[in-house]
């Protein structure tokens, strides 16, 4: 069976994890955390990068930082992971979903403005498959309506929009280092990206259980105490060491994935030309990181049959998000603004194919062959 995913592993991780284990500080913000923070701050030209235990936690921190209060509204796509919505629902916000674009499965930027009310505080674009949302339009809307933009760039490390790294464009951004993403800090992990300087000092406090411990360690205050709300949003230095091993190979990982992506794209082109499937679109100005290779078929029935057929052929392909507005908590915490034209339909048509760092050309060829046999 060709699995759907294998966690990225370069062989580089071991020496760093061992070094971290043998050091005298393995809790958060040790040597390797510092290396990762510096690496991201240089790579993203952001005001501050802070490792978190997950992207979910980075989003939760973002919701606290922008001051979400009960009754506030936050605009995002329904076609996303639960954490995008939960982070804001946890602070009492009402989630306002708008439809997606069928070409990228990203939020339709043209539908955002009419969903804005007096209560709207933030927009959360999700860069699906590591392909950027239309950020110029989104930032312009936010500026005109005085809203914050928090990029859910969980899948977007290594991608750019008009030359700018995803996660570095909004006021805040979040990456995931879960084992299913392009880079992992040992299974779980994330990063909060702060682009707006005003959030830096409070972010450090929220991340350290609501204390000014970071300032204390830098000798800026002579004792630390409870100064704000917060939680424990630091991963251990062993996780940072694991991630560091991957950051050293970040370009190799990205290029390897892009090669796989190109093989899928070329191998499935003929089916797309015949109109049996549609392939992902990479808009002009967007460079992606090959986080995902997906295709869309006619409808749910074809998808169910194709997934079954692929499983019999030894290929583990999977579908993706069930739109959040149709979930139990969707009814409780959200509303859908406008019409759901593409969200439910697109989610029912989509199939993700196996892709990971190091997947062999012959495995990819086997997946392509199986899909072609299904349609012929
Ligand atoms: C993976 C993912 C998350 C959650 O990441 P964790 O690190 O597992 O918390 C959030 N949003 C999107 C779009 C994701 O793909």
Give a topology summary:
Elements: H1 13-21, H2 31-44, E1 48-52, H3 55-65, E2 73-77, H4 82-89, E3 94-98, E4 120-123, H5 135-145, E5 148-152, E6 160-161, E7 164-165, E8 172-176, E9 190-194, H6 200-207, H7 213-217, H8 237-247, H9 250-273, E10 286-287, E11 293-296, H10 300-312, H11 328-333, E12 334-336, H12 343-349, E13 350-353, H13 361-375
Parallel strand pairs: 2-3, 2-4, 3-12, 4-5, 5-8
Antiparallel strand pairs: 1-9, 6-7, 6-10, 8-9, 11-13
Bound molecules: pyridoxal-5'-phosphate.
Pyridoxal-5'-phosphate binds at residues 54-56, 80-81, 83-84, 126, 152, 154-155, 176, 178, 190.
Keywords: Aminotransferase, Pyridoxal phosphate, Transferase
Pfam families: DegT_DnrJ_EryC1
Protein name: dTDP-4-amino-4,6-dideoxygalactose transaminase
